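Intended use. Records like the one below are meant for learning the mapping from a protein sequence to its folded structure. Do not use them to infer anything beyond what is encoded.
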Amino acid sequence: MKGLIQRVKHASVVVEGQTVGEIQQGVLVLLGVEKHDDETTADKLLHKIANYRIFTDEVGKMNLSVQNIQGELLIVSQFTLAADTKKGMRPSFSSAATPVQAEALYNYFTERAKLLGIKVANGQFGADMQVTLNNDGPVTFMLES
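Structure written out for the chain above:
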């Protein structure tokens, strides 16, 4: 499981002209699910994201997590993160989870995040989404479970 995380001041997701998810200060998570992923890998990645210290403390050092600042998460499914781009000029998606598996793990990940007490918004699995963000920094990291 892969999570491309971006520290944001604001982020939102629109589907068919309607805003389906929106957050203020926090983390935008683009979530990619691969064939070998399961609830254990989802839990590991969520723990890492919730505790990853990417927000600045009072002296300007990245020492605070999204939980520490009582920030928010916007979780968006991102099928293309599972792409193999090592060979050729076209990505291969052979390592990506099936849509059924990916949606189940995406929903599991989102529900587990809510249990941490973090305000969570999300996109719409499998939809054509327009994601808008105000990347703070910019600060962007690729995390894997």
